[in-house]
Amino acid sequence: MALSGKPIHLGSLDLPSPIRQLSYFSTGCLAGFASLPMAFLPKFPSMTAASPPVLRAGIRFWTFDHIRHILAPLHLPVWLTGGLGGAAGGFNEVLMHSIVQSRKLPPVAAIGSQTLRLFFCFGTYTFLSTTFGDTLPPKPFWKCWMMGATAGATGSSIVAALEGARGKALWGHAMPRGAATIGTVIAVQVTSCANLLDNVDAGP
After folding, report:
1. Residue 136 — φ and ψ, nearest 5°?
2. What's the alpha-carbon Rg for the chain, to the nearest Å?
3. What stretches of 12-136 adopt beta strand conformation (E)?
4. Which is nearest to 70 in space by CA: 124, 145, 150, 16?
5. 3-state DSSP helix/strand/coil percent for the chain, to nearest 5?
6. Are 115 and 85 in contact (CB under 8 A)?
7. What sign for the dihedral angle of Cα 104, 109, 113, 115?
8. Chain-centre distance for alpha carbon 184
9. Residue 9 has what DSSP assignment?
10. CB-facing half-sphere around the CA of 154: CA atoms within 13 A
11. E-strand spans in the chain?
């Protein structure tokens, strides 16, 4: 049975279609997989260690797209919508991961850190891509990656600084790691998802 391409209407809420939800989740997982080398270097992750980041990225982008649809009628600034979508994605991925893995709610610090980090990361990327990009997602791929990396460095540095990181811990670890991982995750997801949805819309 084919998935529907029509939006889901729940009262006054318009939610993404099932095919769009699957597209965002699957390409989010793909992006999470692509970022594994940056997240685990110099070690090579086992399947057990690699699965959570992959699934968390899928949940992150699935949630992000839901929030964008819910907030669309409010006509908020596009960067704020992106930031709130990212924050919701960060909140949900940490919550789901903790409930599934530990059978308990995550620490407030962990959920707050990821929520705030992705608010800044996704808000910054949305601002950059809509301000300096001629197309969405930005092309070529390296341009999209650079915007994602800038967003990742920004969000990761702000949160790390708020958590007390200084000097090498901030500039030599949090910033470059945030740039590499978030840049890759965002660029791979938005590019692959756009291509997938274009093919779905084109039909057979």
Report:
1. -120, 125
2. 17
3. 13-15
4. 16
5. 75, 5, 20
6. no
7. positive
8. 10
9. E
10. 19
11. 8-10, 13-15
Q: Which two tokens stand for residue 158?
A: 């702000």
Report which of 178, 145, 185 is spatially closest to residue 28, judged by C-alpha positions: 185
Closest to 34 in 3D by CA, of 199, 182, 196, 198: 182
pTM confidence score: 0.90
The total of other beta-carbon atoms located within 10 Å of residue 146's CB is 16
pLDDT value of position 12? 73
Reference 126, options 89, 81, 92, 87; nearest CA is: 81
Tokens of 180: 């590499």
Query: What is the length of the chain?
Result: 204
pLDDT, tens digit, 9 for 90 and up, residues 12-44: 777 888 999 999 999 999 999 999 887 776 676
Tell me how far apart the alpha carbons of residues 171 and 26 are, in angstroms, rounded to a whole number. Answer: 33
Residues paired with residue 14 on neighbouring β-strands, in sequence order = 9
Q: Note the pLDDT tens digit of each residue in 54-88.
A: 999 999 999 999 999 999 999 999 999 999 999 99
Q: Are 35 and 45 in contact (CB under 8 A)?
A: no
